[in-house]
Fold each of these.
Amino acid sequence: MDVIANDLRACVEPTESIRFDFNNMLDKRVGYGRGVSAEVLEALRGKAAEALSAVQAARGTGWLEWTELPYQDESILSDIKDAARDIRERCDAFVLLGIGGSALGPACVHEALHPPRANELPAEKRGGPRMYFEDNIDPERMASLLEIIDPAKTCFNIITKSGATAETMSQYLIIRDALQRAFDGSPDWRRNIVVTTSANRGLLVEIARLEGFRSFVVPEGVGGRFSELSPVGLLAAAVGGVDICQLLKGAAVMDELCKQTDIMKNPALLEAALQFIASRDLGRNINVMMPYADGLRLFADWFCQLWAESLGKSVTRSGAEIYAGQTPVKALGVTDQHSQLQLYTEGPFDKVITIIKVESFRNETIIPHAPEGYPADIAFLGGITHNKLIEAERQGTEYALLKAGRMNKTIIVPSVCAYTVGQLLFFFEMATAFMGELLNIDAFNQPGVEESKLATFATLNHPAAKYEAKRREMAALPERDQAYIL
Ligand code: PA5
């Protein structure tokens, strides 16, 4: 595999670890009655230990197969690297077609580990194909994609675990058509498609066999939102020049931490316990993810899907009504200081804010000195760096939140690299699994999403009987009142 084109993507220290500062979740910092007390946390230790045991006992089985992804077979990684090398040599664009868990992880890792606007860099600086993550079926988006890529020089990675998702399969049919035209009848168009899907379930695996597409497997027991460290995310990462072994190594290191039985040494268990208490006892039903780095903007998107789809459940595992789940919200520091922070500091006491602090950026931007005679409030900026300014603003936000009695915590990332991103991903996946246990819900299904899929197919008059039943159910709704359509 090529070395990463831009060596600024390497960790400052290849062994550096992310750290967690939970101080501002506690009442002694944020104010009595407004944070978690030491006694309440202590009282949760037993339940947290049970959550840990349950996850550890089930790891590698059922829907917890994803816990083994950091240790996956070398032969899988080697196939991924081979395919990536071939794509980097032949193609000047790589387009991922997928949705939800089949797109958010790959897009987040790409954005984190490449310079902003990487696609606009000249090819020699980029060192690999332009990368596009197409996770919607807005007709204007597909049309504009086809205007800027040459299908003959583009690799399309079709990703769907179920192998039947309408959004992804409709994209596939459009691309298949475009490729056939671009290759003018030559069967070589098939080399420009790589499929990532379940080995034995769904329709895409059959299509891949029929057409002879190169394919990768989404392992059984790895749900979409937990699949970033499987071939779902690893192929795109390798095509982009990311060291996928460092990504997995970071996840493995975090996995070790998340096996610790002492809650004060297990960051994901502590995270889950604090969020559990925050929502159960203090009504903190909104969970804001606020990275202070553009490169982690899509990380917040990835996290929001993970937390929302896993924990938003109406019933417990025994079927009792619960209506659980904090609403995750994405924000970006410092941009959203000028949009959301007013609400976070003075609005309802219903939020926990997670700040991500990046200690070392890939670039340093020095602010030039202002000309003589400029007002002091502008002149004082001269000579400092944007690196210093963004950190000062982050500290300012943390202080404003604390002063207003708002629960917050900080994840400290020494530098954003494959190793630390692997840690971040695995940390939140484990925290989600622990939170599912504490809530006693199934964190790995998504019945609410399935309902919308059924209704969509029914609306499109799909002939199967189950959609006919759904059509009748939908038609039984009260009539829409024209008086309310203005
Ligand atoms: O996390 C999940 O399971 C979902 O978000 C899925 O990833 C999403 O619905 C897409 O499903 P599929 O990969 O089967 O096309």
Note: The radius of gyration is 24 Å.
Amino acid sequence: MITAHARATFSSDGPFKLTTIERRDLQAHDVLIEIQYAGICHSDIHTARGEWGPINYPLVPGHEIAGIVTEVGSQVTKYAVGDRVGVGCMVDSCRECDNCRKGEEQYCLNGMTGTYAAVDKYGQYTQGGYSTHIVVTEDFVVRIPDNIELDAAAPLLCAGITTYSPLRHWGAAPGKKVAVVGLGGLGHMAVKLAHAMGADVTVLSQTLKKKEDGLRLGASSYYATSDPKTFEKLAGSFDLIVNTVSAKIDMNAYLSLLALDGTLVNVGAPPEPLSVNAFSLIGQRRSFAGSMIGGIRETQEMLDFCAEHHVAPEIEVISADQIDQAWKRILASDVRYRFVIDISTMGNE
Ligand code: NAP
Ligand code: ZN
Ligand code: ZN
């Protein structure tokens, strides 16, 4: 076993504490990664607080992992010691079902293995990236292009791919009008990526507080959803709306902003059901859809796209002692625009 230092939460409302966790010894296709940076995703909070279902504690969250390969198993062919790599929300899947064969491992029909809070094929409870080391099978590791710094690469592994995948799937491109709801970690990546894909981007945020940022990130317009006039003015405007909001919001109001044949894709994952009136959809042949992260191949494609188009998240690097404070700020919609933990500050027990 390999001992890693980690920050774990020991209850649904507990603070983070320094601890140690065990990583499995390297199997033939495993790589050992020394983690340098780990992004903080709102999903870490939903999960750790038990909002999506019961959780075993202690829990080490973190599925936006960037680091360096320090050891490889005997049959590893894709990576070598010294490679700059990333790991996102999955560390394994069955690889045999129809969806895995299509490269959509996130939709594995036998259930993909989450990077944390899952049980892997070795029977071990997985623990995430708020830690110094992780062992992952090479097939679930991606390569970080040389011109993306490791701290900026980390958020791409979840916030990046989760927004890239639906933007690609629903054809964000020149001539398309895309709205992004919520300017947080996912939202700001959606704005940057949709802009880089050539779409005309509008931000729909609760207030106008972040308007300058939104326009700088690539949006051409920015509206406050707290102002009812926004919904009158923008009715029937968009080909695609990407909802990144972590809380329950009124889907019918946002569906009314779609043009004929438009799609509202939900990536936000509030625990409460989102209700939709039939008439919000049938009038303009609208679709209400969802999307979860992206497959490994598409994650690599997204990283290469970001390298080519110079797309990177806006990050605030914090020390491991600041995780609790960062979570509070995320919950207060006070994130600009992704917290990334500098793992070198982890400390030793
Ligand atoms: P985040 O950084 O906290 O951003 C969420 C944003 O939503 C906030 O910054 C805020 O933007 C807006 N918001 C928050 N509460 C709101 C409320 N009550 N009403 C209206 N707007 C509100 O979170 P994130 O890390 O981007 O994650 C967003 C959601 O996506 C979470 O639910 C997360 O679990 C989910 N997620 C899903 C996937 C997937 O695969 N589908 C992957 C990753 C994350 P404004 O201040 O601009 O209004
Ligand atoms: Zn995430
Ligand atoms: Zn599968």
Note: DSSP finds eleven helices and 17 strands in the chain.
Amino acid sequence: MSYERKVIDIEKIKEQEGICARISARFAAEGKRPLAMVDTYGCQQNEADSEKLRGYLAEMGCGFTQNEFQADIIVVNTCAVREHAEMRVLGNVGALNHSKKNKPEQIIAVCGCMVQQEHMAEKIKKSYPVVDLVFGPHELWRFPELISRVMTGHRRVFAAEKSDGVMAEGIPQQRDGGVKAWLSIMYGCNNFCSYCVVPYVRGRERSRRPEDVVAEARQLVEQGYKDITLLGQNVNSYGKDLGAGVDFADLIRMINDIPGDFLIRFMTSHPKDATEKLFETMAACEKCAHQLHLPVQSGSDRILKLMNRSYDSAKYLRQAELARSYMPDLVLTTDIIVGFPGETEEDFEDTIRLCEKVRFDAMFTFIYSKRVGTPAASMPDPYTREDKQRHFDRLMEVSNRISSEKHREYEGRILRVLVDGETGRDEYNLSSRTNGGRLVHLRGNPALIGRFIDVKICSGNTWALYGEIENG
Ligand code: 5AD
Ligand code: SF4
């Protein structure tokens, strides 16, 4: 597959920031303090993209709101992975008719993976006149220019051309909170799993330069972030397109070398190319969390082949074992798709068997959703929605039982956790995470947020652990 790496010149990002400054000056001249609302669907990559949208919006002089009736600018950042998310987006965008009626000058933008699909961009053009601006993930770097065209031309703007994707550094980012941060290390996906729309909407794999990633990580640590999650569709492919001789394990080491007390997490890892070097590095780097999200998708070799996953269940089991041999305290989680076209009872039983063997700490389970343009969309699928739902419910039971058993094993142990926020509840007012990323509820002083502390785990259920702060 040949792909030409397109890098947006930093001067072009500066031009975009110049447009932000002009928009900000215009708002100020009108005596306005505009408010923006950014509504995000889908994965952490989208959360990270929304931080960039907020970065630009802040430079346009916007404050932020969660109330669509108060917003001058609304940006809906969408997901295309499953139909359910698309339906929610369309329902919510349709409902924005009300806020726009109240505030006719309101600008409504829809961006992200959903609108990178031609049929969805068309649908919005035809059936959602309330939307002023549509742009795909490859156009995010020029969001200021696009919104300025809407503002000055008083017309609808559509920008979601087909693209293999671009690279852009230097886009301003507005991150929330001060404890956890997302850090994109690469974009796109080359794997073309037969059910997945991501490679079509996010383009080819492209890695950020290691020096740019490390500089951003260092800045985050200096700003006081304690929990940094490296993001990519498949982080194991990191660096392959750069030819700089730095792979993902090397990148972890480089970030681990940054002085400071913080944790490194990452997602997602593809089982086809998770290496022993990665597990060894995770075990050796004291700042790297012993947490691995390794989506298996199915336990049936026949289905894995149809999914184009490039591994079989035996390879997956070997990897899980190898990772645990380096890190006996590893927290291992996975994604599973139930009801892939043609999945039989027998295939499903293979999945259950694999889950019982591996005993995941947590599983994210999804019912297969047909995606336009993917190979699986044209595979025969004789099973009913009810069959799939029955399998889904059974898998959830297995997953919940194993998570609950695993969480009970924590009872009585003393663990170091990172306090990351308030729960809004009286009894357990703080939330925290273990090194492996398990949620622990605590009672304590909110001043502890952002601190690593020792806690004794008192109880655990399927979803969370409950602990008491250890004194001394
Ligand atoms: N239907 C259902 N689940 C899907 N996923 C990706 N594509 C689909 C689809 N078409 C799931 C996979 C992936 C997770 C992010 O979403 O399990 O790992
Ligand atoms: Fe989709 Fe497969 Fe790429 Fe994950 S690895 S984004 S499931 S194509």
Note: Residues 81-82, 195-196, 295, 297, 335, 337, 366, 368-369, 371 surround 5'-deoxyadenosine (ligand 1) (CB under 6 Å).
Amino acid sequence: MQRVALAVIIHKGKLIVEHLREEIRPSFRGVPAVLPGGKVLDGELPEVALKREVKSDIGMDIEIVSCIAERAHPLIPESRISYFFCSVNTVNLTIGNKKKVKSAEWEDLPTAAVHMLTLFSRVFAFLVQQLYGNVLPPNVNVPELMWLSQDFERFGAKIREGELVAFPTETVYGLGAHAFDSFAVEKIFRAKNRPADNPLIVHVSSVEQLHEVAQTVPKLATSLFMHFSPGPLTVLLPKNDNLPSVVTAHSSLVGVRIPANLFALELLAAARVPIAAPSANKSGKPSATHHAHVINAFGSEVPHVVLGGPTTFGIESTVVLPKNEEQIVIMRQGAITKEELKTTFPTHEVLIAGEDDTNLRSSPGTKYKHYAPNGKLTVLPLNSKKKWRAHLLKVINENPHESVCILCSKEFATLIPKKVNRIILGSERDLSSIAASIFGALLECDAKRYSLVFAQSFPRKGLGRTIMERLTRAAAN
Ligand code: TXA
Ligand code: MG
């Protein structure tokens, strides 16, 4: 029996396929294998087949580089692996200068051949999705393919062993650790450079699992979970004594939520323990809404990343405190709005801490500088289109030597002079599209080194209020 290992990396749109046992490659000839589309392949190298398939399907030429490990190394630029694909049985490999990369391995050649083809077609599906968005045939479900191809048991074991695993949720990516392992939790604080007085949210997979971390679940808290879970709502509950106090930054309350994301729930199921996880970004920087953001921010510091593509909401969960049975206090604004809470609980008082009632203290995390891009961000005043354009032209003219970018809705983008850079966040008619792209846009501003960024304002109601909270904090000095 011969062992085969294969790593696939996509960098800047190029597919880099790396055979770690190059000498076995000729053995693939003559091994009949079935392409996922049902086509039987006989005597053709998988990468040749892939190239041909890609060309005939969408007329795109792709470059596939095959080489042995040592030679692959120069192809992997410093901490710039933009995408990394691995299959069912994954192993960690050290390439070149101890760079950790993942690869897949199989026990025998016929299985390997079939798996390689499946793997290639998945990588291909993902690559096309990334580069061309909507050209994928409607029956190809990329998230499902990505979900099928990852080894959650292995990720779950890493959590139990006290290692950090980054994973997608429906809001933003989380940087997870075993909630009952204080050493593991401390690793999160170190990796993020997070102040020790900022508590972490604990993620569980079911209402039953809440009792592992919470001493009691009050009636109102149970109703909140029944209405909004799984989903982007974090509820503060009295903490169980055996949950390490480092998780809650010594608070007697623990924030708990059940994420509505297949990948996150799969990881929780495999880990079999609650997972403490803040957003997977360095403290103060925009939250990660795509696995590429996590890889860019942490590189080899966080080698285990569940690849889940873009997140749905793109903005964090709402943190609430069911204060007594009549009052819901919003401790941090988020994807679930005050209006939604009020509609669901019409007889309850719903208050935003620090805004509706300045005596109520909001979550510790809200006092820190957050989400800031490297360039200077200014939120433009809410205005009519005519006044907005005039204001914009004025600030652009005042800064002739800066590299300027405007973040705005597609409705306002038409008002911007052609030569000025802009990132369209979404449509004003669908504020969730704006919310979903804010963090990605701020990170793009860093990548493109814009020194001056101007963001459009949105009316402070519903999701617009959360969007404005994030933008104003990102703009704070
Ligand atoms: O959507 C989310 O909530 C994401 C995903 C990964 O679940 N997580 C997230 O975590 O945004 P983080 O650490 O970036 O923000 C958590 C916020 C902070 O403002 C923190 O102060 C607050 O929740 N928080 C957590 N536990 C708390 C507690 N026991 N009391 C008061 N505030 C708490
Ligand atoms: Mg955060």
Note: The pocket of threonylcarbamoyladenylate (ligand 1) is lined by residues 169, 171-172, 174, 198-201, 232, 234, 236, 248, 251, 253-255, 277-279, 316-317, 319, 331-332, 363-366 (CB under 6 Å).
